[in-house]
Design a protein that fits this description.
membrane; transferase; 307 residues; acyltransferase; Lipid A biosynthesis lauroyl acyltransferase; two-stranded antiparallel sheet; alpha/beta; globular
Length: 307
Amino acid sequence: MGFPLSSRLMYAAAWCVGRLPLAWAHRLGDAVGALSHRLNTRECKVARRNLELLGHPADAGERDRMLRRILRQTGRNALESLRIWTRPRADNLRLVRSVHGLELLAAAEAAGRGVIVAAPHYGNLELVIEFMAARGPFALVYRTPETEAGDAFLRLARGGENIRLVPAEANAMRPLWKALQAGGAIGITPDQQPKLGGGEFAPFFGRQALTLSLIPRLAERSGATVIFGYAERHEDGHFDLHFDPAPASIASPDLAEATAAMNAGVEAIACRDPSQYQWTYKRWTLRPPGSGETNPYHPDCYRRPRA
């Protein structure tokens, strides 16, 4: 399948940035984070609002220091991702210093009922994808960008060997179900806010958040093993890969119980190093029906239309 010229040009630009030495890329990422704080960009506003909603850190000065660390890690993640998308897999996996929980992953694969890797936005998600695809076919659910060119670029960047991209749409269940029935591995981010009707409200850091029900439904119906997978960044630019067991209740037929268990697992990962979690995402826009709550990000965290 061909890709439009605009997407290929975007990929070419990403390729050029991806040639930077890792230390340079991290310095550039740090600069991008500092600039985001100085300009009070949308990402900066969203991360600040999320910290305010959590009330942590309680001290305003410490909260701002945490915000700066989050934006710095966000900048590093962006530059790392351009590098990973445009380099051979063998080069990318050299960034992995150690792998924890590999025996858990291997046992789940050997069981033959399929593996669901719940990969939250912590550290660098792209390395988890690369590692899983190096082991065999890997079906990845992704949220399609708003533009056709953006979607084509993402498919070009992520569509490496053994990776099958599955758009996060209403019919996503079918190809994922087939992959699990064949004993394969699939990857889903558990901390993306679905559309109304595509999830359950469950507590996340003490606040009700509309939570994806796809992972619990697939786990309950298929008997597949759910494993949390994440790549934790070190200051030197290398990573530890972790594969942690998910609680058994994540496969409960009671979706309220299952989604609460899933969110608790994501919380535990995010708390390892809060600056590496994706706080630049508007996680609590949709509020429970009848709660009387309004979107906490409106209007400050949205781009204002041009006059």
